[in-house]
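BUG: 3D viewer hangs when loading the predicted structure for this chain

Environment: internal workstation, default settings.
Expected: structure renders.
Actual: progress bar stalls at 90%.

Input used:
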Amino acid sequence: MIEKLRMTSPDLAEANIDKLAELFPTVVTETLDAEGNPQRAIDFDLLRQELTGRIVDGPQERYRLDWPGKRTAAFAANAPIAKTLRPVREESVDFDTTKNLFIEGDNLDALKLLQESYLGKVKVIYIDPPYNTGSDRFVYEDDFAEDAEAFLFRSGQVNEDGERITANSDTSGRFHSDWLSMMYPRLKLAWNLLTPDGAVFISIGDAESAALKLLLDEVFGSKNFVATVIWQKVYSPMNSATQFASVHDYIHVYARNAATWTSNLLPRTEEQNAAYKNPDGDPRGRWKAADATAAAGHATPSQFYELSTPTGNVFTPPPGRAWLYTEPRYRQMIADNRVWFGSDGQGRPAIKRFLTEVKQGRVAQTFWPYDEVGHSQDAKKELLARVQFSNGDTVFDTPKPTMLIRRILALATEPNSDDIVMDFFAGSGTTADAVIQQNAEDGGSRRFILVQLHDHGDGRKRGIPEVARERVRKAGQSISDAAGLHVSTLDVGFRSLHITTTNMVDVRRSPDVLEQSELNLYQGSVKPDRSSEDLLFQVLLDWGLELSLPIVRELVDNRELYSVDDGALIACFAESVSPEAIRAIAERSPLRAVFRDDAFESDAARINAEQIFREVSPSTEVRTI
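C-alpha cells produced before the viewer hung:
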C-alpha cells in the first residue's frame, strides 16, 4: 500500500521517546491526549530511578542554569510545526545550479524544518544574535498560532501602523529570561545539525556573555567548551564614556566533540618569518637561534656538564637550568652544524631552529586584534560598498567585518570539502559574503545556509532580508569579476526560500460541522495557490533530502515531473497521473517516487500503480502527498 508522507517538521519529542525506549523500555507508558486517543509518554519517576543507584524521592538542588520560562522554551524546541519552505526563483541567483540557501522566516521554524535534511551535516555555525542591550531591534518571541503581522505587533516590533519600533526594554522584569528562552530552543536544534567534527562560534556582548556561556554549557556540555575569543571591535575608543569605554566583543566557541576537535593553523606572519636569518650561509636555509638550556626541575644528571666551543671556551648551564640535550647528543648536533657559537665561535651555545622545520603556521590565540580581523567601521564600509541605502533605509548598527568571519572559516573549515557554513541570525549577509571571498581566495567549495527573520519594511525602506539578498548578489558579482576566469566554478548563487504554512489543505473537519454542500471543497489535498515546485521542496524536507540538490524538470506523457539528484527522487504532482507516466517513471528505477494522493482516479488506479512499481522497480520507495 502506498503510504502518505508526513508533510510536517519532525516530532523531536517522539524521536527522543524512541531513543529512551531502546535504553529503558520500562519507562515508556501510555496516556490519553486531549481527544481521548492513546499516546506514548515517559514516566519520569521511573526514568530518574533508572539513572541513579539510590532511591529517588522528590526534586533535589543541583548546579544548573534556570529561569522563568525554561520548560516552555524546551517544549518549543521539540514541538512539530505544519510549515514548509517555498522556493522563490525571482529572488534567487543561479537557482538550478547553486548549493547555497537563503531562508527567509523565523529561525526557530527554519531549524526545525532542516532537522532531517541537514542532521549532522553542518561543519560550522556562526551566529551574531541580538546582544540584549535594552535597545535590540528584534525580540524573537515564539508563538505558532499567529501570522507574521500579528507576531510582530504582539512582540513589540511594530506599532499599530506597521512601523518598526524598538523592543526589549531593559526595564522588563523578564529581560534576561526572555532572551534565554529565545536562545535555548534554537541552540538545542542547532546542536543536532553539527557534524561530528563541527563547531559553533557565537558573537556576544557583555550583557549576556556570562548567561550565554552557562546556556552553552548546558546545551552542548561544558566538556565541549573550546575557548572564548576577545575581538577588538573598536579602533578609536569613545572618550565620552563615563566608566569604561567598550572596545571588544566575545566569541564563545564550542565543538561538537572538543576532545577530538582541532583548529587549523593560521598562516605565519612576516614578522615571525623575519626572525629567521642565515648568517653562516647554511645550505638548509634560514634559521633562528634558540635557547640551548631548559629548566632544571625535571633534568637528569646527564644534562649537567661542561660544554666547550670550537675556540676552547667552556660553558656550564646557568643556575636553575640544565642543557637541553645530553653531551653525546650535543656532540652529534655540533658535528651537524646545528649549534651556533656566535659569529666569532666563542659565544654561549644556541640551537639552530630552521624555518623549514618549524610548524608551518601558528595556533590561533584568544585575542583577535582589529588589525588582523577588522573592526566595526570596516564592517559598515563593506556593507555600504555592497548595498546602496536610500534615506529611508536603516543602515545596520552592528555588522561584522568579513575578515572576522573569514578567520573562523580558516580555523574551522577546509577548502575543498563542501563544508556547510550556517548563520541563522544572518542580518546583512556578512557570512555569505565571507564564504564567497574565502572560496575565491583558496579555490574552496564551502556552502552557506543563511536564515533571516521575515521583514517587509514599511514602504519607505526595504526589509532586512531584501538588503541581505542584495548584498550577497553584489558580493558574488564583485568577487567573480575581481577574481577572473580561473574561478569560473565559484558558486556565487543561492536558492531563496520562504518559510510559510504547509502546502496541504487542512481537511480535518468533524462530521457534525461538515455540511453536504461543502464536500466538494475538501476533495483536493493541496492548496490552490501552491505550485509543483512548492510541493517538491516540502517533499525534500519530509524525506530528509538536502535542499540544494540539482533538480531537472521535464515532461513525460504530457505530465511535468522533477528528477532530483539524477534519480534520487522523481516527483510528479500532476492532478491526474496515467499508467504510462507511472511506468515511464518506474523504468528509471528511482530510489524514491512521489505523487499527489488525489491524482489517482480510484483505489484501483492506486493499486495498479503499486503493481507497476512492484514489477518494474521493486526497490523504489513510493509515497503520496
